[in-house]
Amino acid sequence: MNAMIELNEPETQVNLGANNPRAVEPSMKAVYLDGTGAESLRFGEIEKPEPEPGEVLVKVYATALTPTELHWFPTSHDSSGAPRPFPIVLSHEFAGVVEGLGPRVRNWKIGDAVYGLNDWFSNGAQAEYVTAPATSLAPKPKSIDHIHAAVTPISALTAWQGLLEKAQVRRGQRVLIHGGAGGVGSFAVQLAHWKGAKVIATASSGNIEFVQSLGADEVINYERERFEDMVDGVDVVFDTVGGDALERSWRVMADNGRLVTVASQNQQDSNPRSRDAFMLVRADGSQLSEIATFIDAGVLQVFAAEVFPLELARDAYTRARQGKMRGKIALSVFAESANP
Length: 340
What we know:
This protein is an alpha/beta fold.
């Protein structure tokens, strides 16, 4: 493995302005963007957030990497379309411990071990602390550590909402899942298997047995075979890959089949069928609570591809771009405690 290079660490805290009363607010260590692109990632001190009404302040033990977030619209713009101010902190899924409560929060207490997902337009969890709506959190699964809990929210919620809500997968249906070894795909294979569907998944040659172990009835090696030559009459296609794989998927569907994609660019896609099939995951604390129950019962397994310390986030992005991983990459922020 190549030697890892730490991010440049500024000598001082980010300057918020001499006349800004918030400039004296407590600071925290974070990885943040001070410009566009991965080359603008910095490791240093920025202002510690404070929870607004209905929000919780979480001490982050771990967070997960979503490499495409570097280029997402919400990364650089707010919900009105205006440019967001720097510094911008990435990674919106996390696990940790409740550190503070905003006004009107009643269902959490200081010290609770939680995992969850915060708003795409807000600063994320590549930092020692993050704020999130109280309704987007759930108790951390008891059977896994914070690292594995942190890589769960986006992937598990995406598979849950895509298969169980949008596609409404039922027992006996034939389900084709593209990217069965990935973060979302590994949860999708397990959920479709749990629903009693016949699961067909695509994977690289090195992940065939792994995807089979998740519950896939058939695994197609996409490096050697074209899935449209192997299957047809599929009731549900769940796509995490996009591009050519998405376009070819229409050929293998049954007459009343459903396609769900999390890889299409929705409004930017020229194919209206792809736009209709697109879904974007939403934060949902109640669903995360159900998912935690599934994890603790052994119905769902969680996989962290690799773990990097927070200050080596840039190396983690480099590894993520190489692909062919089982699960997602995690960043360790605070060390695990003996209690939660």
